[in-house]
Specification:
Helix 2 packs across helix 3. The chain has two domains: about 130 residues, no CATH class; about 110 residues, no CATH class. It is built from ten helices and six strands. The strands form three sheets. The protein has a two-stranded antiparallel sheet. A two-stranded antiparallel ribbon has the order 3-4.
Length: about 270
């Protein structure tokens, strides 16, 4: 799980690139829609990250259809440039940190909030599993948001993802959980917990961690001190590349500080 700076896209000025060269009546509908989306973009920004609190707004059908058409117009240079900018900005899925970003997820669903069809702050580049299998159209439960907002929630400085390795009756056990790290508010922690649960990150991280440790067995040499230094070096590399709250970083941090695992764990894998 990771957060990013806002995409390098200026809005609503960028909306003009979608209007340029369009034929009638699409051009007129987009010009009229721009007045609505400009106002709604300001509402969105004012509420971030608690955008689930934004009130519903009825969008004219012609305007909604025009926005949908532009979003799905993969032949348009302006749209292709817009999408490329977003994917280049967030190449790895910020929701899970596992796979590359290949889809654009509407943080507030486009069916409910069509005015944000083309709003960069509402478009989160994410991976195939997060988009198609785990993240449904829900965006709030009981008035609280369900997922972290990668463009606003400043989480990278906090270490809230923890992995634990243990050796029990000749079997290596791995567990992932999230904790309320110092500096994270109570409300933010509950968002992290809901996000972790809804995307089934514990199970998904466990699968990758098990494979990773299994591959490590063939390269496991040296005494305890050598093993510890090797694990610590791998942890430093993972931290620099992925940040604190990545499945590999959390796993390696516990591994290099876990004497029981270093001594007894690897031969059991």
């Amino acid at each position: 799980m990771k957060t990013f700076n806002r995409p390098p896209i200026t809005e609503p000025a960028n909306f003009d690139t979608f209007i340029k060269y369009r034929q009638q009546p699409l051009r007129t509908n987009l010009k009229e829609a721009k007045k609505v989306v400009s106002y709604r973009y300001n509402k969105y920004k004012a509420l971030m990250p608690e955008v689930q609190r934004i009130h519903l707004h009825k969008v004219d059908k012609d305007h909604k259809d025009a926005l949908s058409y532009i979003y799905h117009d993969y032949t348009c240079k302006a749209v292709k440039t817009f999408r490329k900018t977003l994917f280049d900005h967030v190449p790895k899925c910020p929701y899970c940190g596992i796979d590359s970003s290949v889809h654009l997820d509407h943080y507030l669903p486009k069916g409910t909030f069509p005015e944000f069809y083309l709003y960069s702050l509402n478009l989160i580049p994410i991976c195939e599993p997060c988009n198609t299998k785990y993240k449904k159209a829900i965006y709030s439960k009981n008035g609280f948001r369900v997922f972290i907002h990668p463009y606003h929630d400043q989480l990278n400085a906090y270490e809230f993802l923890k992995a634990t390795l243990s050796v029990q009756m000749g079997v290596v056990k791995i567990d992932y959980r999230v904790i309320q790290a110092p500096g994270i508010s109570h409300d933010m922690f509950h968002v992290i917990k809901r996000h972790f649960k809804e995307l089934q990150l514990q199970q998904r991280y466990l699968k990758h961690a098990t494979t990773y440790l299994g591959d490590m067995k063939d390269r496991w040499t040296g005494n305890v001190d050598v093993r510890r230094r090797s694990l610590e070096s791998s942890y430093r590399d993972a931290l620099a590349e992925y940040g604190y709250n990545h499945w590999k970083t959390a796993l390696l941090k516990n591994a290099y500080t876990n004497t029981d695992f270093i001594v007894n764990g690897i031969p059991l894998l």
